[in-house]
Amino acid sequence: MTGFKALVLAGSRGGVDPVATYAGVAHKALIRLDGETLLARVVTAVRAAGASEVAVISSHPEVRAEIARLGAVALEEAAGPSLSVERAAQQLGTPLLVTTADHALLEPAWIQRFISETPGDADVAVLVAKRNTVEAAAPSTKRTWLKLADGHWSGCNLFWLANDRALGILDLWKRVEAERKRPWRMAWILGPRMLLRFITRQLALRAAAQRLGEVAGVRAAIVVTPYGLASVDVDKPADLDLVREIVGRTQTDL
Q1: How many domains is the chain built from?
Q2: pTM: predicted TM-score of the whole model, two decimal places
Q3: What are the pLDDT digits (tens) for 6-58?
Q4: Could you list the residue range(s) of the whole structural domain that residue 33 is in?
Q5: CATH number of the domain encompassing residue 52
Q6: Cα–Cα distances in Å, from 92 out to 54, 85, 116?
Q7: What is the rounded CA–CA span in Å between residue 72 and residue 91?
């Protein structure tokens, strides 16, 4: 698919970013990998996948200078990621691909396959990878796994908002974000029956997605990628070492 718009999240969480400090830069998005900033690598990938317009959320002055250099649209951060995405989606319109500036290894083929495999009746879709797929591609990676009845899963920082109805999921995201310090309240949003299934490891991934969609009033879809590296982002210094190793190994193999 071509002609969609893309949104890249490059906001700041507040405080010192250990990855940026480790790399000696002012912001994680400005880390250089194989001669390019992480932000440049992501913007290049989404454009190559067919994005007609790319916007980046960041209020950091140096990141905004890089956004301008890349010819992307700079959008200001709002009070929290969910509100930032909601405002951006209202401004940009749909369909909209959402990803993050630290998706250092992002490839156009991953995006194209994700979009093509999203069901036509889905309002919103999320890309995930199974643990064995991720560990086969990057054995040393340390991820946070979502442990469910049908396996261990990792998100891939790729989201598809197919139409304006998808904005309902952002309202749910804001509710979850507000309860981030009370995990039991976050889980309770799914309802007591689903919470019990989760606790007893009887909840499967697609059932959870379906329930989240019902709560948000949208049709939600899960797309499973065969690309294990799609789940590798740069969240901590060890992740940066890993992606540098992977890119260096790829260059050696050429």
Answers
A1: 1
A2: 0.91
A3: 999 998 877 789 999 999 999 999 999 999 999 999 999 999 999 999 999 99
A4: 5-245
A5: 3.90.550.10
A6: 9, 10, 21
A7: 14
